């Protein structure tokens, strides 16, 4: 017997088909944006894009014409070859130069030896000398030297990292001739600084003996003045030849001892204790002291020489003491003067601290502004801005046509 089955149970439910749009595309297809749609947006708004691009280009032309023209002059230097011991010596010389001292302290591990000289060129001492010599406070309209120094740093570049191994000094200025003068003046101010720094064994000796020579010259002048006063007070006193010879010999020995001590002190600044020259100088010092001891005196007790004071009046003894001082300082001055001249010759043999390969000359072309680069770059930026504006404008119009987004836009305007 057949069972009755309702017709509704035999039919399977069927999902409703999406209603086609007016153009025959579904909603999902409408939401997809093709490259052709983007191109249509750009073509429809080509005038807007061209107007924005032209505006940027015209503005760039005007700005590039209004910008002040600047010229860059470059001087190229050849630094001396430098070894590790020389770097260590220089590190002890630059303690008072701020950041340069820290740079020199690590000079033993420098990858590029030019970095040491670049640091010296950028030191505050050199830059302050440039500010003062070229009156950069007035040129840059700065009230304080530190501000003028910073302004100069923004216009000057010192680079020693090139593959050619040279140091390039570039200075920018509105006047091409002044730019060349500043670049060459940079080198001159660095040389003035280097004269006060002993950057080598001969330079250290030269600087040391120069200081000692000034002191010896002052001591000699004081001793001669004392002898002159003694002669004026007691009259001219003639000493016998034996006494005079003894005084002069003792004074010469004392002077040689002092000069040798000064020499040893100077050598100890750059030579180790086992240095052959240092050991020889110490041996010679002991011999001179032994010779002075035979005369009955010493460097600490110069009045103990074997002069019979009983045969001399009090005025004669005072005169002999003054004469001994004069002879002593004369010998000291002569010895130090010879050492100073030898050190100067040795320093000259080492060559100049730096050599100028190419001095700076007034440039014939400006370095700033680069008008072509500015105009081309601004035009490209304007074109991209125009495209972005066209897309934003198209998106805004699309949202205005959509019922849901139009209501949200109205609410947003109302909130503002």
Provide the descriptors you would attach to this structure in a database record.
416 residues; mainly alpha; Bacterial polysaccharide co-polymerase-like; 3 domains; 17 helices; 6% strand
Structure described in brief:
By secondary structure, the chain is mostly helical. It has 17 helices and 4 strands. The protein folds into 3 domains: 34-67 and 369-415, no CATH class; 71-198, 2-Layer Sandwich (Bacterial polysaccharide co-polymerase-like); 201-349, no CATH class.
What layout of secondary structure does this protein have?
Elements: H1 7-10, H2 27-31, H3 35-44, H4 46-66, E1 71-78, H5 84-93, H6 99-105, H7 114-121, H8 124-133, H9 136-139, H10 145-155, E2 156-159, E3 167-173, H11 176-195, H12 201-234, H13 241-267, H14 276-294, H15 314-349, E4 355-358, H16 371-401, H17 403-415
Antiparallel strand pairs: 1-3, 1-4, 2-3
Helix pairs in contact: 4-16, 5-6, 6-7, 8-10, 8-11, 12-13, 12-15, 13-14, 13-15
How would you describe this structure to a colleague?
The protein has 416 residues and is mostly helical. It folds into three domains: 34-67 and 369-415, no CATH class; 71-198, Bacterial polysaccharide co-polymerase-like (2-Layer Sandwich), CATH 3.30.1890; 201-349, no CATH class. The chain is 65% helix and 6% strand. It has 17 helices and four strands. It has a four-stranded antiparallel β-sheet. Strand 2 and strand 3 (167-173) form a beta hairpin. Helix 12 runs antiparallel to helix 13 and helix 13 runs antiparallel to helix 14. The two termini are 78 Å apart. The model is unreliable at 1-5, 7-31, 82-109 and 306-312 (pLDDT under 50).
